[in-house]
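Usage

Read records sequentially. Each one opens with the input sequence:
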Amino acid sequence: MKLFTRPKTPGVLPMPLWLQGVVELGQAAVLSALLVFLPLIGVWFADGFTDRNFASLARLGGQGWLLIHGVPLTLTFPAGTLASGATSGLLSLFPLGLTLIPFFLSWRAGRRLAKASYTDQLWQALLGALGTYALLGAAAAHFSGNEDVSISVTAGALIPLISAGLGLFIGARREAGSWVRLIGVDLTDWISRTSQHSRWAGSYVWAVIRAGVVGITAALGFSALLVTVALAMSWAEIVAVYQHLDAGIIGGVVLTVVELGMMPNFMGWALGWTSGAGFSLGTGSLISPLETTVGPLPAVPVFAALPAGGSEYAVAALALPVAAGFLAGWWFLREGENHFDEWLSLKIRARWFTAPVSTVLLGVFVGLVSGILAAGAVLISSGSAGIGRFVEVGADPLWTGLWIAAEVAVGVVVGYAVGPWLEREERA
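and closes with the structure output:
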């Protein structure tokens, strides 16, 4: 089955699919690199890098391109530079917002490759595309290193494939419209050949996973709302820090772009804050609704919006993950896939027992899914700045996941129990 009918020109041979994959994802790599290099070139022409030549600036751009893909950089400092006595540090904190640039460029490439491929030939285009991206990442890691920054060539080749590969496959799936047109396997037909009990169990598990996604999505949405409110309430302090820095127009624009790129990271930190586990900005610091212990911070304008713990409004934020679980439980009720409750009620006739047990277990299952996703979101939003005590920045994935799992589970139980009253329609 063909995904798309390509117009053919007489006397012109079509481009091989592997070569088209090379061209498409090569374009994505070049465009994402330009978006990194252009601000650096602007700062360089404004005499912001007085101690760098153009070759050094190109290496800095390569390091930035690798960093937005999540590749860690090992920084080396002269002896005695840091108060802790360390001579090296790992920079693993990368801006998730800027990582969306190669993701969406790869998403576009995936759609174009799906249009040009047959069902059984798409792997050629994907293999050529991913192989090209890996080679470009390895080359960037090899040529961007210097005496101050060292980069693993293996990490440079493999880690960029995560964001680029996800965008590529999601874009191809979006264009194909179904898995059967994408990989030639009809999942619906395969499921239809299984037993009824297997289909019920699969439907229940799939509904639980989607409810967990609803829970963590709502929790992240509440976290984003908190970040927005904090920025709005601290706008005067943020502007004052900008004026104190006096970085100029180009420097201010570059700093703002970096802060915007860090907004998804701030959402992950806010998720840890609303869970009660809190987050840290340096070793020994803790910012949570219950207490705030922070040492000296760098002059980053957005840090002026950091919350202060100990107030009743901060403690009220702990209810937000519970509200997210409430929405997840209500969604699960509307989905109508609680086959475990049906099976349990057939085995045990005491409804007063089966209904609470199935609801509590539903909360545990959905909370577990949301907790795992929360730990993953916090893990990728945190990292090390590689300098001094800022080797610990962000929320703790384990504690955040555990707190989110427990709070979402409570919300799911309440939402699923109250849902029938919310779904009741008024009669004339």
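Summary fields computed downstream for this record:
- Residues 194-423 form one domain.
- The radius of gyration is 25 Å.
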